[in-house]
Protein 1
Amino acid sequence: MPEYINAVKPYLEKAPEQAFENIRTVRSISLAVNQAIAVYGGYEIPSPDVSWNLLEYCADTNSAIGWLATMITIDEEFGCWCLPLAAEYDEKTRARYPQVSRKEYGAHSTLAHRFVLSSLFNPTLTRDLHWDHICRSHACCNPTHGELVTAKTNNARKDLSLRHTTGMETLF
Ligand SMILES: [Zn+2]
């Protein structure tokens, strides 16, 4: 998929001042290049082959992602970049996410999705910014499977999805 890689390459850049825009652009190019998959809640993720190609390219060109990729398995159906995760929730039903540690890459119990964003785009991430996993898989660190939103937005979306799942309220 060389055209896709050529299109996305200029935006895989460690440029903090335009990082958020780059993250959004990589996602929109990825969605446009092949038939995207509609997932829960009306959101879309790229087709799995796009995610395969993106991981392969990033692993080849970025040493931090190259290291991480040795632990990633790609989900065949959705193209999630999955890392081992014992449970999606802890005993108090708080969401859990894979964490990574590697001194060389400045990671010390760093959330895997934040590690990927930092390694590829180097955004300025405050504690108030959350990564909303559009694919709903906590184990996933695919940068095209999420959106950076404020904690408030993320929690509102979570409430909606929970109510939707339990049938308490429709989304319309
Ligand atoms: Zn995913």
Note: Residues 20 and 123 are 7 Å apart (CA to CA).
Protein 2
Amino acid sequence: MSDSPRPSSQPDFWDVRYERERHLFGAEPNAFVQEEVHRLPTGSEVVELGAGEGRTMAWLAQKHGHHVTAVDFSETALATAREWADAPALSFEIVQADVRTWQPDRQWDAAVVTFLQLLPDERQRLYDSLKNIVRPGGWIFAEWFRPTHLTGTYDRMGPSRADRMVPVEEVRRAFADERRASVKAVDAKLREGPHLNGEAAVVRATVRAGAS
Ligand SMILES: C[S@@+](CC[C@H](N)C(=O)[O-])C[C@H]1O[C@@H](n2cnc3c(N)ncnc32)[C@H](O)[C@@H]1O
């Protein structure tokens, strides 16, 4: 699926991690998305890129009645997402794809990214893709580790290399032309399962899509 030699750029790397441990990043929804969900009208169409086992999409569908799509390249992660998606009366679609090359022919009301680990040039494409797949007036909610996480007094978690962490300025630049963008450096206490647990340096972006 990818030419990159880096292990974490390959679905196999993630399959092995998810096979070893179910609910690798928790079974509860991402805390930042919980804070932002009030912006979405009932029955919104929401997509998550790098959705993993689908914990946040499952919650948006179950608790809020949104129509959700979980995209990830790990078959093992998506097998768990499928268990949630199969619950009766949920509108929950699963897509196995590499988000670096995925080109959907439709749009959503909102897009979510939480802790997706891409390299700098891959992220530029991700930002363009997010702008393309969200309808004008829709929302993008995104959270990543900041490079400071590796050098400051934070707990050990997240990518092992700074180039998979995301500088605040990069995100601000990427969304500068959108209708509205709030991009914040946050020192957060994460409580999202065994591997996202403790003090963390993150960047959180809330973007209203469409030309400013
Ligand atoms: C740290 S996990 C976060 C999962 C989920 N967003 C969450 O917060 O629980 C990163 C996820 O991104 C997926 N991923 C990484 N690179 C990807 C790519 N190029 N295309 C699709 N999924 C990718 C991995 O399979 C993994 O499930």
Note: Residues 14, 25, 30, 50-52, 55, 72-74, 77, 98-100, 114-117 surround S-adenosylmethionine (CB under 6 Å).
